[in-house]
Amino acid sequence: MSEPGQGVPHFLAEGYVDDQLFARYDSVTKRAQPQVPWIEPIEREHAHFWEQNTRRALNSELRFRGDLATLQSHQNQSGGSHTWQRMYGCDLGADGRRGGHMQYAYDGADYISLDKDTLTWTAASPMAHVFKRKRDADLAYSQHLKVYLEEECVEWLRTFVAYGKEALMAREPPVVRLARQQGHSHQETLVCRAHGFYPKEISTTWRKDGEAWTEGTLHGGVVPNADMTYHTWVSIRINPTERHRYQCHVKHPGLPEPLILAWEEPDSPDWGLLAGVAAAVVAATALLGAGIAFLLSKETLQGGRGVHCSVPLHALGHLGLW
Description:
alpha+beta; 4 helices; 25% helix; MHC I
């Protein structure tokens, strides 16, 4: 970032395996550091792992600052707050399929990305065509990236998964509760809230008479908790006289079978739950009008080797912009 805000450094690099943040470097600490206990033993087999990645992150920090200044110059921007981001990652399917991607963003908007199948670059911005011409002319460089994403990156993915297998394979089923809010004009809202689950993937839907029903529904995002679990909610506006016809349907890897809940009158009102759900609905509504830019440049680990990420943000040490 050209003008970092409070709590946001000039340069930030993070590594993820699936949705777990396992490594981090920033321009304040100047150190690559483990973020989860399961990655700490890696230096037993890869000596000086964190020192080597600290040096690479320092070099990338300097290069990213230069890249950002170059971008501002090319777009005639003399000041203001701007961001430069590189995101890449690789994945390995259960069937052995290998995938990978690499893309750039400037000020939160797509800038350019690599099509590793055709070994060409796709410009998402008119200003990116200079970069595109430069990269398309260097076929050997694009071939190198393809090999990296499909081979070298995948090997490091296997290494990281081996260290974090127990944590990455953990299954925490959701705790699901229903709440009811009275509305106007003979309408009310039923809210189905799931919390404390891991992994992130979950399906929460409303059904009417056993059939999927989307009319009058709102979905909350899947939001992380401090303990690395997640929570979410889905609401539906209904006629109170038809309340008995609706059920919340929840599917999650931690559940042996889908969970189906229908509204039951409580012995006494759960005012604490209702207040929490109301606050969540209000907050979600407010966010609909807010633009949020979360821009991170990520540093690769161990010699430019990446990992599979659900939010895979890295910076290859040898990928200068110009």
